[in-house]
Amino acid sequence: MRVIGIIAEYNPFHGGHQYLIDEAKRLVGDPRAVVMTVMSGPFTQRGLPSVSPKHVRAKEALVSGVDVAIEIPFTFACAPSERFASGAVELLYRTGVVTDLAFGVDCKDPSLLNELSETEPDEEVLKQALSEGKSFPSARAEAIMRNYKGNAAPDVVSDTLRQPNSILALDYLRACRSNKVNFKIHMISRKEGFSATAVRGALTDCGTGSVSKVADTLMDKMPDKALSVMLSSLSHKEFCIPCIDEYMNDASLLVRRSGDLSSYAYMSDGLDGFIRNNIGKDLQTKHFTMTRIYRAVASLMVGQDASYVTNEKHVQYIRILGFSNEGKYCLKIMGKCAKLPILSNASDALELYSSNPRLKDQFELDLLANDVYAKYAKMEPGYEWKMPPVKVK
Fold first, then answer.
1. How many domains does the chain have?
2. Contact residues for 70 (Cβ-Cβ < 8 A; gap 6+)
3. pLDDT at site 210
4. 17 in a domain, yes or no?
5. How big, in percent rounded to 5, are the helix, strand and coil portions of the chain?
6. Which of 15, 154, 206, 316 makes the best surface tag, with the fewest CB within 10 Å?
7. Whole-model pTM?
8. Which domain holds residue 268?
9. pLDDT (tens digit, 9 = 90+) per residue, 221-239?
């Protein structure tokens, strides 16, 4: 059985995601291949609350060709690309069933990404660039370019290393190598014309007060089946689009009322003081990017310490978000092959708390992240305990 792993956020699901699923199935060449997506939960890799709850996004994917959806724990989902990729790849590997890994790339020559993934960054160049206030992605790009010995032109290498999807692709390839994962890799060129940022912007602009307005706004921006899932959830008032301004205002007040916050993840280098002293202003700087700030704020709101991120390098469980009829058979096989505990419901974790404290610590961060998200999505606190896996035919 071929099982294609896809790492995603589906924030929300759009035509580019549909294309990746369809193209991955075509490249594998097995009509019975199962698609397993590992996706972020309530918070995205960038650090912000997702536009819709994870069960809604999982269902959007499941009606669009995905067979099994599992969740990346918060500590890896809301993290820099290297940690995000490492957690996602390890999670797919530890299911024991994934044979292929497919992901989108911006690079016209995927072989260049293979070369760059094998090029270690120059540590001195990296340190110097960081000391000059450059962001880590920019600093690492310079450091990799210094040691690159291939034939690609410098401007091509530089452009590749600055593309967000290329950065993730490099980290996926590095994670496969470091974990000694032997997936068959499918790097698929992204199809132009699709942007999750554009969909989120349109969704935020139109609000969620009128389902018909949302439908009119997103009709040409999301696949029909995925859009139907979102519209149904909105019409049944399962959630509302989180207000980022409200979320950031609450976070700013928390920073303002607290003392030293440097022990929280991503809040080092005086970031807490910077936020405290610049409340109400534009926080973006060369040294403190908004992505860094958002991740630090999310860790503060959830209570994730920097020491936890430093010490915990591995996922501790496989959380099932949903499955199709085809995926149900895959899950049966996974139950025999998986190298981690499988959690179909939140209550499954409780039985493992006493025997697995690392699982307990990681899962409790997930529970806190879901409760924080619930506040801004106008959902019932503790909804995680009442949400079984999504099932679609």
1. 2
2. 36, 37, 38, 39, 91, 95, 318, 319, 320, 321
3. 77
4. yes
5. 50, 10, 35
6. 154
7. 0.94
8. 244-310
9. 899 999 999 999 999 999 9
